[in-house]
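FW: tagging you since you asked about this chain on Friday. Here's the raw sequence from the shared folder, copied in full. Didn't touch anything.
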Amino acid sequence: MILLPLIALFGCESQPNKYGDAAKKIEEALQQKYGEAFIVEKIGGGFGTVNSNTIKSMASPKSDPSIKFQVEITKDLEKVYDKYLNEIVAQSNVKPIEEMARKFWSDAKVTITNDTVWTYPTHVDRDMTYEEFLKLYPSNTQLISVFVNGANYINEINEMNEDAELLKYQQFAKALVGSGNLKTRFNVKYLSLAAYSRYDELRRQSAEMTYEYKKEEDERSIMNFVNINGSYISENGKLEDSEDDFKETFEHWKRKRQEYSEKKGNM
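HL: got it, structure written out here
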């Protein structure tokens, strides 16, 4: 089921509506918990929730509407569960990891989110580090996206120095492990020149950059991503993917770039 905008669910303000009451209660509960104002942007039924007695929604802090997080409220409007701490910890980790990434890709721009799966954090410590967060919520996986300008790594004949990039992945993973970033999936996302030039504008609207670029691809039949490669770092600090896995992914994206070029040339 798709989350619907509030206006689509509410209808006229004068009509009683459980979703309107739920949204108001969520905003009040979040403000009381975190000491800042929030807005519920989308709200829906009890799908994919902790249990069938909850209503699922998406909320944002008014201070930064680009950040969105999951919230659930019981249907009796008594208890609220949220994943705002996931985003607080993620945002605090963006700058140090972006600085780390730029040692290997000088044009890197980083987004991060934390996925605790079915677990809703109960802590509110805004100064919590990722290591502390992971100890409290071991179900979590940190998801790092490193966006770079593909034109700096792929030449005019559709080739890239795969061995050099592979070495960067390994070195970046080592740096992540050394700074306590375990249970982390990272992907380096090589953008077209046009897509990279729009990054800052899109980021001001949304922190979900992969979604925004993918939506553009679907709606406009363009190729924003010209290569994506990365791996998963386990709780033991080991890379999930082998060198052959990385090279297989390189080959997959090389074929995709070629197919897109041929299709564009025939249009």
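FW: The longest helix spans residues 243-265.
HL: agreed, and Strands lie at 4-5, 38-43, 54-61, 69-74, 80-82, 109-115, 141-149, 184-191, 225-233.
FW: great, closing this out.
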